[in-house]
């Protein structure tokens, strides 16, 4: 049997009701026989357990009522425990106990009717004398009225308990719905907060990518411009006595390059400071100007193209421009500027292959007493530079790849950039 947990005030109420039902017979001068004390005790114990354990209470009521009828005891005040227990079975019992309580209502009404009509005829003055049809009808009426009386006495408390049970169930359902609504609102709030955090994280990533792009562009612009300025300044220093006109041209190139670099740096710094929109970026059509600038800086460049050019996105055009710019800058700083730099654009159906081939400087003669000249450092011997990694990153962000290798005194940069519209272009920003 399952014992329910009750609050203290509920236990007190049940004990008081049981005590009242137990001592009530003492207030009436009614002699019920020698078994009345046993019946009263059984009913009182059933009342004590009516909410603690409705099955125990129902069993005690049935056992006590059966004992009462077997001993032909008369009705007494403690019999009020029967409807109270039936109410408890409907209100607090399990589904099985509840339906056993309903079954007890029907069986109790039938048994009680037979007990009163045939065993204790003195209770309601029922007579069995049948001398005519009228007497038979009266007996049937007495039986019917007695049955209905017991049915109402036992059934109404059970119905009341069922109504209370339904009300409690409805209240629990409303409470559960409120809890579910609160949980849903909390979950919705958590989802909204997670969405805001995701948006914030995406914004932070975008900002970081933008700063990385600006830093990359800053490196390309400054490195290229300084390489041109250094080369022109070195040339002007050696030519200003023998060929003043060439020295003047070199100084003009230095001034022009410095102004362009200053303008681009100002744009990049303005983007970094004010989060402005991206300024116009170089595209493939600007390569001619780049070649002219690098030629003026002292390089010999052979730019060729084969195949049918395809329409590329601005990000891919910028990547190609920066790769060519960085390669030419490296040649100007570390390669043999007397040899021709070959730049080949090979347009294929699905991609564009860009090959930049330059001549390496011969290795310097080993002299322990001197240090190598800065112009004799080979590309693959530099440490800590960002040029080649930056080119590889640009190619990868455009959906392509970049490789470098050297052989036969040549240093070759090969970039493959997708040119089909089906390839999703990765934004550099």
UniProtKB/TrEMBL annotation:
Transmembrane segments: 12-28, 34-53, 60-87, 99-118, 139-159
One of the Pfam families matching this protein, by short name: HisKA_3
Keyword vocabulary terms for this entry: ATP-binding, Coiled coil, Kinase, Membrane, Nucleotide-binding, Phosphoprotein, Transferase, Transmembrane, Transmembrane helix, Two-component regulatory system
Domain DUF7134 span(s) in chain numbering: 4-167
Cited Gene3D superfamilies: 1.20.5.1930, Histidine kinase-like ATPase, C-terminal domain (3.30.565.10)
InterPro entries given in the database record: DUF7134 (IPR055558), HATPase_C_sf (IPR036890), Sensor_HK_TwoCompSys (IPR050482), Sig_transdc_His_kin_sub3_dim/P (IPR011712)
Known catalytic reactions: ATP + protein L-histidine = ADP + protein N-phospho-L-histidine
GO terms, molecular function: kinase activity
Annotated ranges, domain Signal transduction histidine kinase subgroup 3 dimerisation and phosphoacceptor: 210-276
Coiled coil, from the record: 177-211
EC identifiers of the protein: 2.7.13.3
Protein name: histidine kinase
């Amino acid at each position: 049997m399952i014992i329910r947990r009750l609050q203290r005030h509920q236990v007190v109420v049940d004990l008081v009701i049981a005590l009242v039902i137990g001592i009530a017979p003492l207030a009436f001068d009614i002699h019920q026989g020698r078994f009345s004390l046993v019946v009263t005790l059984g009913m009182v114990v059933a009342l004590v357990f009516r909410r603690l354990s409705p099955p125990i209470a129902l069993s005690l009521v049935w056992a006590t009522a059966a004992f009462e009828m077997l001993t032909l005891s008369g009705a007494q005040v403690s019999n009020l425990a029967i409807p109270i227990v039936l109410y408890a079975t409907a209100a607090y019992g399990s589904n099985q106990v509840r339906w056993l309580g309903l079954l007890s209502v029907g069986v109790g009404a039938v048994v009680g009717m037979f007990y009163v009509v045939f065993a204790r005829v003195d209770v309601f003055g029922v007579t069995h004398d049948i001398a005519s049809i009228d007497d038979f009808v009266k007996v049937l009426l007495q039986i019917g009225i007695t049955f209905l009386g017991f049915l109402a006495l036992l059934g109404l408390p059970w119905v009341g308990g069922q109504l209370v049970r339904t009300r409690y169930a409805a209240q629990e359902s409303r409470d559960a719905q409120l809890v579910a609504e609160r949980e849903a609102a909390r979950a919705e709030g958590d989802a909204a907060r997670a969405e805001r955090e995701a948006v914030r994280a995406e914004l932070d990533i975008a900002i970081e990518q933008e700063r990385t792009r600006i830093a990359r562009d800053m490196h390309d612009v400054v490195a290229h411009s300084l390489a041109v300025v250094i080369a022109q300044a070195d040339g002007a220093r050696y030519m200003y006595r023998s060929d003043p006109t060439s020295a003047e041209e070199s100084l003009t190139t230095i001034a022009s390059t410095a102004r362009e670099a200053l303008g681009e740096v100002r744009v990049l710094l303005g983007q970094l400071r004010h989060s402005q929109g991206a300024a116009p970026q170089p595209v493939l059509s600007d390569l001619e100007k780049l070649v002219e600038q690098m030629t003026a800086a002292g390089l010999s460049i052979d730019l060729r193209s084969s195949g049918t050019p395809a329409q590329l996105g601005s990000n891919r055009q910028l990547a190609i421009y920066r790769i060519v710019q960085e390669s030419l800058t490296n040649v100007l700083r570390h390669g043999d500027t007397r040899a021709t730099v070959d730049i080949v654009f090979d347009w294929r159906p699905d991609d564009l292959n860009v090959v930049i081939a330059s001549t390496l400087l011969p290795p310097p003669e080993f002299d322990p007493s001197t240090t190598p000249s800065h112009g004799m450092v080979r590309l693959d011997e530099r440490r800590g530079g960002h040029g080649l990694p930056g080119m590889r990153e640009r190619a990868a962000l455009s959906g392509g790849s970049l490789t470098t290798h050297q052989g036969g005194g040549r240093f070759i940069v090969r970039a493959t950039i997708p040119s089909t519209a089906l390839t999703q272009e990765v934004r550099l920003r």
